[in-house]
Design goal:
Chain lengths: ~675, ~270
């Protein structure tokens, strides 16, 4: 009896799944067009899954092994089952493999069940709670029906009732694993996730066999030339189709939620919920079925689920009242990319958030709090503080800094950033100048020709102001010749290095920590040994996660004789200081302040000093009241430790002429 | 029951502003506040219509500045196109008289050009309409009479009733202008109508030079305690030792002024 029932079950499940897949694809295709090489993407998918995705999943060893067993077992079992039971290829070899696959899957599902016993808050409940049982049903059911096929049990074994029972178990498993995959069950992540990997909108972020770095963090430019091109995202259907596909791939693992500083601070943002809201909007409906932790915003009156709703072509943020998400949710994000870094499904939260911010700023003029003032300042004075552009070099009145306009060509263009107007950052800049001079670096500054890089404007969604600043900066830079740019501001570093390229500006940009590390390695700097207390290092988001530079700052500290006592969240897991993405300007209230939490991290290491490498981080961390640790920029620490180089003069004498002869 | 309020036709006169630090063209702060007031009125009185009016030359810089107002949510701006240096008053007066709105709102003083703040007065005189300056809010419009709140120094307010049509001018006391959005600003249209340019002959004879900040009189505070210092710092900025001269001959008056100038060190003693 089973022999007739099984093929029917298997093929009807596959058939229903195909219909579901078609419907799902139609949902994604509501999005805007986006050109991706489909076949190339599909071909790259296995590698992206096995290497890049598992690189992220593998950070949690138990979960990674669980997933390998369950998913690997399932894929193998599903294929073999179709052959053995669907097409009736009752080959003992195939049957044996099928037994092995389903057994592996069963072991995996035991671990899934164990994790679901007391799931951490970041995991969604709801339908996800039944998943371990469904996995077991499938694996056990398949295992049992395969026993007769390989001859371990006689073919007609057992009562027909047992057969029916087995068929029901297998049907349950098939319903969850095959039908649910395309009809929106928890297994949807496998279907959408595989295609999302193949058609990802940032194919550059994946590693390549040739050893490509696999990083893509710059925001993509809006087309401002074409007046009919849309400015940002108003409705779910305004996302590109592969962005929608990406949202649909979310497994609700909550890793993003667990690392989001805004969520931890009690601000009304939960990246996981945000992605789920986009899924709700794409399909139409309300968030009532969301089964994870919502916004932690009790302080703001609470945000119970079920109040927000949307449609594919309805607004995401309502002008009045509620739609899919509230504007404060979007403005809470510091663009720290912690969520993107942790997301096993490679979803791009920051892109989505900035897309929606662009609409609010460019179309509605609804950038909150001080942001309109900052944007107006950027437009009128080229700096966010509204200072006179001619005052940019006042801090260096006594330093006699060479201007690139006078020299026309130098090795290093020192990009000052808007920290030039900030008294605290001026100390860092002075330290950096001292270090460059000590190493005999041939450098110059743009002086009053420099403008804000456009970082804040872009992250506040004002792409027009960003592009205006960027284009003028690129035009200025094009007048001069230099080998590379050095800056102590990771935001400028990121924007100049990763985002100007799309607008025609290609530069080699160094963060000052990288540059100092290189100077030290080539013997151009010498330090006296560190005598201070214990030190920890805070990785700036825009240096670390955005640009992958974790080592150079630590190398510099090591060269200073400092042993860094690392915070629990450091390196790629570093917690944001709260200063990015214009968050201090939009200033969405929460229950705690992000810099306070970060300073607690610092204090937990017992360090009396935290080394930083970013003007924003300095400002945010120094703004913490009653902090237990001093905040110093790496440049300051280096400048303080400078001693005369062993081979004095060797460089000074030869450097300039050499540089001039070459060209 | 509140009496029926009808919508009003509001024309907002806007100029090309000038950023105080960089001198770049922008939407002028006071004019933008005037538009904000008008947009508030539009919300408050359904059926109201707000139109934007500017007289001046059309150029890249000025267009960008004018679009700054459009980005606040309007679809068109009427541009009375004139040559550089032409007198805006006759053109504006003629346009307003041809299809009179009920309320004309303008900033108190332009940020470039003469910036004398005389435009609202000159317009009011030509049109024969009442003028209220320093407007803080429009409270009500009923049966052709507007109830206005006028801002006086130090946060005081005065309620006025004015028969429409009227001209009102706004300064820093009016609500801050909303953000100007790029998309609507780019899409909106400038409806240009060339008008006969009447060159401003008086202006042509002037010599223009960048303004210098007037020196501020230092307050000499002789205070013994923190409380006194605070009181002195928070005190009204009024000269205490003035005297009122009444019924004096011109010679006596001149003598008094001369004496004061000597005392203050403006003239040599
Ligand atoms: S970028 Fe940072 S702040 Fe924004 S959602 Fe992701 S984790 Fe949260
Ligand atoms: S967005 Fe990514 S990290 Fe967040 S819950 Fe979904 S899959 Fe997990």
């Amino acid at each position: 009896m089973l022999e007739t029932l099984l093929p029917i079950l298997i093929f009807s499940a596959l058939g229903v799944a195909v219909i579901g897949a078609w419907r799902r694809v139609r949902l994604w295709r509501q999005g805007r067009p986006s050109a991706v090489p489909l076949l190339k993407g599909l071909a790259a998918m296995p590698r992206r899954y096995l290497v890049d995705l598992h690189h992220v999943v593998g950070r949690d060893k138990v979960m990674s092994n669980t997933h390998v067993a369950t998913a690997g077992g399932f894929v193998a079992a599903a294929v073999l089952m179709t052959l053995v039971h669907g097409l009736g290829l009752a080959n003992p070899w195939l049957g044996g493999l099928l037994l092995l696959a389903s057994a592996t899957m069963f072991v995996g599902s035991l671990f899934v069940a164990r994790r679901r016993r007391n799931p951490p808050a970041r995991l969604s409940r709801g339908p996800w709670m039944r998943l371990p049982r469904s996995l077991m049903a499938f694996s056990l059911g398949v295992f049992a029906i395969t026993l007769p096929a390989v001859g371990i049990l006689p073919a007609g074994f057992g009562h027909w009732l047992l057969g029916l029972l087995l068929a029901a178990v297998v049907a349950w498993g098939l319903a969850e694993m095959v039908v649910g995959m395309t009809w929106g069950g928890p297994m949807k992540h496998a279907f959408a996730g595989a295609l999302h990997l193949a058609f990802h909108r940032r194919p550059e972020r994946f590693s390549t066999k040739a050893g490509g770095e696999g990083r893509s963090t710059g925001l993509k430019a809006l087309d401002l030339e074409d007046p009919s091109a849309p400015l940002g995202v108003e409705t779910p259907a305004d996302f590109t189709w592969n962005q929608l596909l990406g949202f649909d791939a979310c497994v609700q693992c909550g890793r993003c939620e667990a690392v989001c500083p805004a969520f931890a601070a009690g601000q009304p943002l939960n990246p996981k919920k945000l992605i789920q809201d986009m899924v709700v909007g794409m399909a139409g409906g309300s968030d009532a079925h969301y089964a994870g932790s919502p916004h932690p915003s009790q302080g703001l009156g609470g945000k119970p689920v079920g109040e927000h709703h949307g449609t594919p072509h309805g607004p995401i943020v309502a002008r009045e009242g509620k739609a899919l998400v509230d504007a404060e949710t979007l403005w809470s994000c510091t663009t720290c990319r912690a969520c993107v870094e942790e997301c096993p499904m490679m979803i791009e939260h920051v892109d989505a958030i900035v897309d929606m911010r662009r609409f609010l700023t460019l179309e509605r003029g609804e950038t909150p709090n001080k942001a309109p003032e900052v944007l107006d300042n950027l437009i009128a004075t080229d700096n966010p503080g509204g200072f006179a552009p001619g005052a940019r070099m006042h801090w260096a009145a006594d330093l006699d800094l060479p201007l690139i306009a006078d020299l026309q060509q130098v090795d290093v263009l020192l990009w000052l950033g808007d920290g030039a107007f900030d008294m605290r950052n001026q100390r860092t800049l002075r330290a950096l100048v001292k270090v460059l001079r000590a190493a005999g670096v041939d450098f110059a500054v743009l002086g009053n020709e420099e403008r804000d890089s456009g970082d804040v404007a872009r992250r506040l969604g004002d792409e027009a102001t960003f592009q205006s600043l960027a284009r003028r900066n690129i035009a200025t830079l094009a007048q001069y010749r230099f080998q590379h740019i050095v800056t102590c501001d990771p935001h400028s570093f990121h924007v100049l290095g990763n985002e100007y390229g799309e607008l025609g500006g290609h530069y080699r940009v160094y963060h000052h920590s990288t540059y100092i590390a290189e100077l030290y390695e080539s013997g151009r700097l010498a330090f006296r040994p560190w005598k201070g207390g214990s030190v920890t290092y805070h990785d700036p988001c825009y240096l670390g996660r955005y640009n992958g530079e974790y080592e150079a700052p630590r190398n510099v500290l090591r060269a200073l004789g400092i042993q860094v006592s690392e915070m629990e969240r450091s390196g790629f897991r570093s917690r944001c200081c709260g200063g990015g993405g214009g968050a201090p300007i939009t200033d969405i209230p929460g229950k705690r302040r992000i810099p306070d939490m970060r300073m607690n991290d610092v204090e937990a290491t017992g360090a009396s000093l935290v080394a930083v490498g970013c003007p924003q981080c300095t400002a945010m961390l120094e703004g913490v009241v009653d902090a237990g640790a001093e905040v110093r920029d790496i440049a300051e620490l280096v400048a303080d430790a400078l001693v005369a180089r062993p081979a004095v003069g060797a460089f000074d004498a030869t450097r300039r002429p050499q540089a001039e002869e070459v060209i | 029951m509140r009496p029926e309020q009808q919508g009003v036709e509001v024309a907002v006169l806007v100029s090309v502003g000038r950023h105080p630090i960089t001198g770049r063209a922008r939407r002028a702060d006071q004019d933008a506040r005037g538009l904000e007031l008008a947009l508030g009125l539009e919300r408050q009185l359904p059926g109201s219509r707000v139109s934007l009016l500017h007289a001046g030359p059309r150029g890249e810089e000025s267009e960008a500045a004018l679009r700054g107002y459009l980005g606040m949510g309007l679809e068109t701006l009427t541009l009375l196109e004139q040559a550089e240096g032409a007198d805006a008053i006759p053109a504006l007066a003629e346009h307003l008289a041809a299809a009179p709105p009920q309320l004309v709102i303008t900033g108190a003083r332009a940020e470039r050009g003469e910036g004398s703040g005389l435009l609202p007065y000159a317009l009011a005189e030509r049109l024969g309409w009442p003028l209220v300056n320093g407007l803080a809010a429009v409270e009500r419009v009923e049966n052709g009479v507007a109830t206005l709140l006028q801002a006086l120094p130090r946060g005081q307010r005065r309620r006025l009733k004015v028969r429409l049509p009227a001209i009102v001018s706004v300064d820093g006391a009016a609500p801050v202008a909303r953000q100007s959005a790029f998309g609507p600003a780019r899409r909106a249209e400038l409806e240009a109508t060339p008008v006969a340019a009447e060159p401003d002959r008086e202006l042509a004879q002037w010599q223009l030079a960048p303004a210098r900040k007037r020196p501020k009189r230092l307050k000499v505070i002789k205070a013994a305690s923190a409380r006194d210092r605070f009181k002195a710092a928070a005190a009204k900025a009024e000269g205490g030792g003035g005297q009122v001269l009444a019924d004096v001959t011109p010679a006596q008056g001149a003598e008094a002024i001369l004496k004061l100038l000597r005392e203050e060190g403006v003239l040599p003693r």
